[in-house]
Amino acid sequence: MKKPEALRHKLRRQWQNGKLREQRLLDHNAWPVTLPIGKPSPALISREISAVRKHIELWRKVTAGAIDWQLVNYRSTAEAVQLPLNWVLKSADEWIEAMADETIRQEYLLLSTILADVDPLFHSLLIHQRQQVLSREAEETIKACEVALLLESGCAEGKPLRTLSIAGCDSKFFERNRTLVGKLLEMRFGQQVIEQGLEHFLGALDESEHWLLVAPLEVGLLPFKQQRVRSSELAQTPLPGSHLLIVENERSLYQLPSLPNTIAILGAGLNLSWMQAAWISNKSIAYWGDIDTWGLSMLATARSYQVALTPLLMDEETFEYCNEEKAVAEPVTAGESTPSKLTEQEGALYQQLCQLDRGRLEQEFLPDDLVKNEITRWHSLA
Hints:
It holds the Pfam family JetD_C. By secondary structure, the protein is an alpha/beta fold.
């Protein structure tokens, strides 16, 4: 016997489920939705009839959707009792009304406004990518969809993205909407957008000039202890050694052990397209990043360039070992959809992190001994 507020809470949780949200907003066959209320036991009817009356009164006040009232016979009552047995919702509008949550209602109105003005090709993505949608004005999201429909492979012809005048967008448009436009283009053109990188796919000049920190883990392997190198230059410059350790954050340099024939490249973050370089495929490669949705997304991107790489310290076991004291909230997730290049276990971890209040474990907070032992073990086996 469930109270209205208990089922409202259930409906709100369902809204947070990306797949369920997409199904109910896009598929008319998803309706109606019936939520069982349950009926009081004979013991409750005979001993606490006042509680049953209060329960009935609560459901009589519900105006969203339809309540399935049925007469139920009990031995302890002279007449059949009319009870609410099911809550039936027939549309997304009724779902929103039933939840009685102003934040969700505003989110639904925003989504409805956007979906009404953009190509249906993008509807599923926009419903899943809530953070991308909620973080900008509706007009900006609609403009991003319009731009994504006009872009083609190689269309930039060597010019910087900021100089492209498409659908009236300003020079800062791609800076503000880079991630969203990339995901929209992926809906049109598939994985090649991610695999090549946005600039490379569009044929645009890469102005980012991302600098990477190169550090040999064996003295004398390079003529320096550390040096910053442009990612575009690194892609064209084969490095010595047999092992390559790619690390998401520069600040983890102090955690790395000394290893023969090994070079570490740190601070790549999201800029991983340089990993396509042919010379890299001849190395034994490991990738180590944060255990959060962005870290796992970067791992998936790195694997799309070098399928044989070994992920280090980015599994559920490591997270469970350290999360009680070290895990923090991830301000914005990388999205509810699991990146395609993750393994089944990594994908399960990704979804777990999406649901946790503290779903981020930064790599520099892992115990030094654990880090050194795991990296050394990889080196000995590779």
